[in-house]
Amino acid sequence: MERSTRQRRAIREAFLEAGRPLSPQEVLDLARRRVPTLGLATVYRNLKALVEEGFLAPVHLPGEPPRYEPAGQGHHHHFYCRACGRVFELPGCALEAEGLLPPGFRPEGHEVTVYGRCPDCP
Question: Which residue from 17, 3, 19, 30 is spatially nearest to 88, judged by alpha carbons?
């Protein structure tokens, strides 16, 4: 079992505070509020460990480096702000409604990303 360090706690708290998927740089910026000497290499090491222990899950967006979010949230989609680059969670899934696929098709999974501007961006 991985020991809990001050850096690891600061990284966990960054995700809980943000309430949205974060890039490694966003994690660094938020976690440095608690641990000013935190470095990007430490963030990457801890992100990997937190994914392995099941606390985080990667969020893959086409053409973008991975973001991370707390694991175990159930099926949902994401909104990518083209102006500021932040990613937000969209709860639930409208695509799970019956009748969207042609007869005989059996879905095995899907990912949806909505692109646009968040309320903070003009």
Answer: 19
